[in-house]
Write a structure and sequence with these properties.
Elements (H helix, E strand, L loop, with lengths): L1 H42 L6 H6 L4 H14 L3 H9 L12 H5 L2 H12 L8 H28 L2 H13 L1 H4 L9 H20 L5 H21 L3 H17 L5 H21 L4 H4 L2 H15 L8 H28 L6 H10 L8 H8 L8 H9 L2 H24 L19 H19 L4 H17 L1 H11 L6 H33 L7 H13 L5 E3 L2 H11 L2 E2 L8 H10 L8 H10 L4 E5 H4 L10 H8 L3 E4 L2 E4 L6 H4 L7 H4 E6 L3 E6 L8
Parallel strand pairs: 1-2, 1-3
Antiparallel strand pairs: 3-7, 4-5, 6-7
Family: Belongs to the dpy-19 family.
Protein name: Dpy-19 like 4
Organism: Malurus cyaneus samueli
Length: 688
Amino acid sequence: QFSMYLCYMLIQRFAKLFFGCLAAVTSGMMYAVYLSTYHERKFWFSSRQELEREITFQGDSAIYYSFYKELLKAPSFERGVYELTHNNKTISLKTINAVQQMTLYPELMASVLYQASGSEEVIEPVYFYIGIVFGLQGIYVTALFVTSWVMSGTWLAGMLTVAWFIINRTDTTRIDYSIPSRENWALPYFACQVAALTGYLKKNLNHSAEKFCYLLVNASTYTFMMMWEYSHYLLFVQAVSLFLLDSFALAQTEKVHEVYRIYLFSLILGYLLQFENSALLVSPLLSLVAALMLSKCLQMNMKKSTFVSRLLKIMYIYLVLTIAVTLNFLLKMFIPHKENEHLLKFIEVKLGLNTTKNFTMNWLLCQESLQAPSQDFFLRLTQSSLLPFYILVLIICLLSVTQVIFRRICGEPLKETVKLEDGRIGERPEIVYHVIHTILLGCLAMCLEGMKYLWTPYVCMLAAFGVCSPELWMTLFKWLRLKAVHPILLALILSMAVPTIIGFSLWKEFFPRIMTELTELQEFYDPDTVELMTWIKRQAPVAAVFAGSPQLMGVIKLCTGWMVSSLPLYNDDDLLNRNENIYQIYSKRSAEDIYKILTSYKANFLVIEDSICNEVGPIRGCRVKDLLDIANGHVVCEEGDNYAYSKYGRFCHEIKMNYSPYVNYFTRVYWNRSYFVYKINTVISFQS
């Protein structure tokens, strides 16, 4: 009988694992298919010509895809990589290492896979490229599914996580707006790392599972760091979460320090393979990890159960922070770095510690993604029932964690195995980690709306885990001291009933909307931009250099291959200065000033965009021309109102009048409803 019972239990566990894995993989595949179908319906991609497809890549996305095209056109992969690392055909008068400066490792990977798999005769390059990105989004969803499953013990939580993620897609991912963006390549690897870390932190994990999770954390951490230039900042937030987890002795110290070693290894390897990227050496992640390891050496005997050791815990946190800040200051003093200085300046202005008239800084401050989140964001999360359940789960977990910390301060040891009837969900290290992690990410999301794409997916995961976890309900019932109903039975019932009710309500309300999105034919067509790109390819000399807004220059580079004077990149001081200087075509400057600026970058053609010149923005003072007037000192304050004043008219308006001195410097060669193209004269008359 015992052997039959054991066999039954093994079959049950295997069936649960098999169907859970099947559901996770199916969810990821269905989401990837959903994205592909939605993209096709939105852009009519299959019925477009190549030029029309490429125009759908806007701004920095256009630049990333243009380098992918260049890699495929190169005679060999080695030659293609060399041309990218010594690129002098993109920006005039500037040779750049595009792989390092733009983190083009995703494009290198995609081009290798495309050529090595023999896909040239099977699928077009653009479909292969976006197919990889959509596939990664499927992995992203699968990783969130697995994380919630590992935490709750039921794959019902994974299904609910995926449902909330898709329903709140506007706030969980930017895939709709910018397919090639770095975070769309990187965040799936981070989700895999978080899933592996969740399993690694669990108590009583068997050796094989622990080793697998450890190796997966290693691989995904390094890959994540290579895919996104700002990845080390997100890993820093994660490291802070682990530091707090370890400081309150809520996790196995050895495991946490193994993760620190993974960070250190990834930083060193990333530094070497990213062409000695100094940003990684001065990153807060390296300083914190080094401080933690040094503090451990200084406090080897701190965790003995004495009053002094518990008192030293507070000193330990102070010691780590002091060493980390000091070390980061010293590294920045001795290691030359420029890559992220503009971020520090932005933070100063954002927090009100400084003011500036700098065009680039004020332009960034005006971007929607860098504003505080709107009320609509919270309303959408509430309508899908995500926010109320997240707050409920967070409060219960926080109170339980607070209880555990209080017990630890009083000298009570943690239980080796937490049983359901104990009602102590706050003693599970993986739960505490996620609580701290989502709180830290939430604080960032409350400051910058763009950070919601990092926070909301883990809100979906934590909320789904909570409502599906019998331990969470049992923790609540322990506090309420239920006697009428057996608390364990009620917890088991609610952990099944509540997510089922939520699932049916979400299905009834949101499934028809999702199906409507997939069946409704949308149309994205920009004939003016198509005409402009066609004219450039047919009429402009091959050696011509174009000047205009950085966003348009990215599209011109992709669609025509012609050299441009600026790009929509914000991690290089020289490019930031170029962008500001060329944006002067929308300011109140003289024709001679604009001519000198453009010829200093060897530009041959100037493209004026009517949408910028005649921009009517929702926020006065955030239009490009307003920001330029502020930066140039052309704003006069009278009786509380601001007026733009200069002895010159706005250049983009005046040049259209075709009178002297503008016709002396510029000759109009093409125009349509949206764009005016002017040839920059090489022989001019300086007569007014």
